[in-house]
Amino acid sequence: MLVRGGPSHQERTFGCRVRPLLWEVRFAVRGFWRRPSFPGVLVALALGVGANSATMTLAAALLVTAPDYVRNPQRVVLVPSIGSYVEYRSVSRDARTIDLAAVARSDLTLGVGREADAVHVECVTSGYFDIFPVRPVLGRGFEKSGETRRAAAPVVLSYGLWMRRFGGDPAAVGRTVVLGNRGHVVVGVAPRGFRGIESAAIDAWILLAVSPELCSFAGTNLLEAADAVWLRTIGRVRDGFPIGAAAAEVASLAPAAAGWRGRSLVPAFGSWRARSLDGRVTLWLVGAGGLILLAASLNITVLLSIQALDRVQEFAVRTQLGATRTRVFSQFLLEHLAATGAGAVAAAGVGIAVGRLLIGLLPIAGADAFAGSPFLPSVGILALLVGVSSGLGPAVWVSGVVERHRLHGAALAVPSGAGLRSVFVTGQFALALVLVVGAGLFIGTIRHLGRTPGFDADRVVVATVDLARAGYRANRIHDVFETFLQRLERVPQVASAGVSLAPLLESGGPTRAFPLRTARGVAPRRLPLFNAVSQDYFRTVGTRILHGRAFVDNDAGGRPVMVVNAGLAARLWGEADALGRCVVVGGLPCVEVVGVSEDRRHVSVTGVHDEWFVPFSQASLYDNDAAPQTLLVRARGPGRDAVGPVAAALRGTDSDLPYIDVRSLADLVDGQTRSWRLGAVVFSLTSGFALVLAAVGSFAALALSVRSRTREIGIRMALGASRGDILTAVLCRGMKVVIAGLVLGVAVSAAAYRLMDSLLVGVTAADPVSFGVACLVVSVAGAAAAVLPAVRAARLEPAGACADV
């Protein structure tokens, strides 16, 4: 009888195939969390995948990924050889294959008085926004016809500054704001997130040719200075022209471009950032993330192999009841994939937390990349790949074992796989050692940079204000700084204060350098740095006078005098005494050396420069326009606690003052060691993760070994072995794996970290302290993992252990 409307043969077959699979999936989801290996797998996936995804996302944001607002980013290039406005103007006028724009970074003051704020500004040429290209979300960009000094000064605000300063009011366009003590008309607002080719946020854009004094590092007009290298030139290769043709044209128009590392054009997004300190450290962080991912994969493999060994009897029974090898394989793998799904969720949380930590240490725009697409999908895909690759081997192994054996009323003779597990655990300890050594090298660099820098960073506050760029004349600048000093005398947290012409650790404007020579004509190869300081300067900053004296009141109207640092004294006079020596500077016949100060890291924490100092009362002998721009304050307690009172005292001096940047010297040091601190934090985190994974894997493997040898241990104890003998034997078994990992890890670290030598300061890639501490830390972790299984083995009762013998 034919029944119409019933299921077809294909439908019945499909249903018969799908239903068992659905049963297996449901069974796996219900039972995966009961498995003893589940917590370990969850932790391994969370730490390994989360940390690796965070470092990879940071590297992509900093080194690879072009912002969404860039059309055809491969056609946006840097022209590294064009650094002067004269050359830019010439090449831009004659180029037919590429559109160019010149850019200069500058930190300026927005507003005046107490409402003044510091902003990061890019000074650009009128075609800058066309390079990407973008259109302002409000108003307009720069007009090419308006690029002249006679035009009104326009400014394009960033979306963030527009929201902070004007609350998103559309009426902000057309308003006048004081930027760098000059009125600027707001002509537009850039799209949200726009920052050009920079990784960090920019607050505003102004025209280079309209405000050159605000844009040059010297605070002067460098538009016609052909030999001044102060600009970054970017360009977009025009559609229809290959990049090679544009490179050839630029090389012909700017001959110096042809010799720049063999290329006249460099991709604007990617490779050039990788050569920076931040970029090189980030690449090492990617390596650390890869190692922790590998350690997590090894850990999961060890845990699953132990689980597979425990469940051989269970799967063998299922095989006797009709389950095929494919069913056993799929059941084991599905349970692991269910655990992998939970691990992916945990990995996303760890990745977001680590990513926020990285962004806090290395501020870049686009921090939301850690909370949305493509970060979250990439975490899921990576967790799936790790889960499948780690679980495939144990699943194949257990399905093969139960296929070859049948249950005949006795236990299966199953290979233990102890040797393979030992190899995996050895690899985990080796990876952990590599990461701990890396953390030690970065921490060693930070400790060296913070040790005896030539000033007391913890108790000094640095206040910087560039009044000259704001239009103040030299005599008024001196009056303002004198008022600063008088106001600071009434601040309880201030012990002393001094002024300086040069900034400290790049806290302000440029540092001057003058040629000088001894009476016999000896001159240093590199121009030494010049600084004019008050007589309390050295005591306030904490720079010691090694020989002679600092400046005194009598120097104001006396003969020209100077203080040189120890490095400059050694270069000019060798081991001879520098005091009383005569130095020829400019048109002065003789400047007497009255003191020798200790060497210090003045411009950067990474290097010591030759320096010479003169009293501020004599600064006009060397520079008619010399005026103080940095105020140094010594606090009675921690410098960070005095920042607020010092800032309040200074910013209330005059309602017309530009923004006064007040920071503790410790914060300036931290800013310059940012990249190394990033490396230290990430390597410390990943090494901690790796140690946890290695300890868990070692503990699980050793616990399984003790359990599988229970009868053997019972027999030994029955034959006279003491509990101490058993404890020692198990500990030695566990430490053998640790020692093998140490040997392998030391060899890998010695080879790998030789490539890091250029990043390290004060330590070498073969630093014995880092290697010694790393070996000690890994050994302690390995010993801790072995203690509990060893104690359990020593507590076994011989009668109970041998009951089944």
Write the layout of secondary structure elements.
Blueprint: H1 9-31, H2 38-64, E1 76-79, H3 85-94, E2 98-110, E3 117-124, E4 138-139, E5 154-157, H4 159-166, E6 176-179, E7 182-189, E8 204-207, H5 212-215, E9 232-237, H6 243-253, H7 255-258, E10 266-267, H8 271-274, H9 277-310, H10 312-320, H11 325-361, H12 375-404, H13 418-449, E11 460-464, H14 474-488, E12 494-500, E13 512-513, E14 516-518, E15 529-533, H15 537-541, E16 545-548, E17 561-565, H16 566-573, E18 582-585, E19 588-597, E20 611-615, E21 630-635, H17 639-651, E22 661-664, H18 665-672, H19 674-708, H20 710-718, H21 723-752, H22 768-794, H23 798-801
Parallel strand pairs: 3-8, 5-7, 15-20, 17-19
Antiparallel strand pairs: 1-9, 1-10, 2-3, 2-9, 4-7, 5-8, 6-7, 11-21, 11-22, 12-21, 13-15, 14-18, 16-19, 17-20, 18-19
